[in-house]
């Protein structure tokens, strides 16, 4: 489990770092980037790697919490990580979206509830299919 989570962290962090660099290339937000901003990009990659490469797989595949705790934990991680990523990307953008934090939190919670129940429904169908094949 640890090696799988480590590999997922490395892959997610690398891909998200490349993704942020592509976004910066196409948006042209800053033509000259300071050396300090590269650390922001690496920080964004690490945050994505921790949330989507370690925390989400652990909570959804290995964790034993109830459904409501899973949903609230992932919502909190996603919301706080998202705010931190936006702050690292652009302080001006962070100041622009901060007044709407409650709407982002409610949207985040709603989408996590929908995604959780869709995921569990698909997982239950797959397990039922596997069990039915065992009886035949």
Quick overview of this protein structure:
With about 140 residues, the chain is mainly alpha-helical. It is about 90% helix and about 0% strand.
Characterise this structure.
- The relative contact order is 0.09.
- The chain is 88% helix and 0% strand.
- It has one domain.
- It is built from 5 helices and no strands.
Shape: globular
Helical amount: over 70%
The unreliable regions are: none
Q: β content, as a range?
A: under 5%
Main sheet, how many strands, which sense, barrel? Answer: none
Provide the succession of SSEs. Answer: HHHHH
What is the alpha-carbon Rg in Å?
18 Å
Question: What is the arithmetic mean of pLDDT?
Answer: 89
Number of helices: 5
Number of domains: 1
Query: What separation lies between the terminal Cα atoms?
Result: 32 Å
Topology:
Elements: H1 2-27, H2 35-62, H3 67-89, H4 91-97, H5 101-135
Helix pairs in contact: 1-2, 2-3, 3-4, 3-5
Characteristic key phrases:
single chain, 136 residues, mainly alpha, 5 helices, 0% strand, globular
